[in-house]
Amino acid sequence: MNQNLPFEVLRQLRAQGKTLATAESCTGGLCAKALTDLAGASEVIEASVVSYSNRIKIEKLGVKAETIEKHTEVSAECALEMARGAKKFAAAEVGAALTGYAGPSGKDVGLVFVAVSSPFGEKVEELRLRGSREEIRLTAANRCFDLVLRILK
């Protein structure tokens, strides 16, 4: 994990007086851990939801069942609804979400969608990552931080 990225996310959030909530599927809370490992995180981090199951995506994050049925849980549409849901759930200004296939086996291993919803706009990115399960998860978390920073700047 590039520790500069979560540090810079916290710095930017503090400077702008904004709060963040995350929704993580394939990363299992890596973003939340990296952020809360840093002093001062409690000033800007509202909540994190690890939503491995579709039931939690639907019931807690407000992802529409139709979205999952039509596009699957690993899609740009689902990721954006997760980001919006995290933001709403925690009453935060910024929501960030990740959903994907980290492997080690199965189809589309390395396919990850990262989304951010904020007052500055919304953005979703499709990633095609390579490596071990852990490498995919760490790279996805770093790319999520990068997307948050780009939206904040």
Explain the overall architecture.
The structure is a single chain. By secondary structure, this protein is α/β, with parallel strands linked by helices. It has helices at residues 4-16, 30-36, 54-59, 65-71, 76-90, 133-152, and strands at 20-24, 45-50, 94-100, 111-118, 121-128. Strands 2-1-3-4-5 form a five-stranded mixed beta sheet. A hairpin with a 2-residue loop joins strand 4 (111-118) and strand 5 (121-128). Helix 1 (4-16) packs parallel to helix 6. The chain is globular, with a radius of gyration of 14 Å. The model has no long low-confidence stretch (mean pLDDT 96).
What is the secondary structure topology, with strand pairs?
Layout: H1 4-16, E1 20-24, H2 30-36, E2 45-50, H3 54-59, H4 65-71, H5 76-90, E3 94-100, E4 111-118, E5 121-128, H6 133-152
Helix pairs in contact: 1-6
Mean pLDDT: 96
Span of the ends, CA to CA: 21 Å
- H/E order of the elements? HEHEHHHEEEH
Q: Helix share of residues?
A: 40-55%
Strand elements, count: 5
Low-pLDDT residue spans: none
> What is the rounded Rg?
14 Å
Q: Which strand order does the major sheet show? A: 2-1-3-4-5
Structural class designation: alpha/beta
| Approximate strand percentage | 15-25%
Helical run tally:
6
Biggest pleated sheet: 5 strands, mixed
Shape: globular
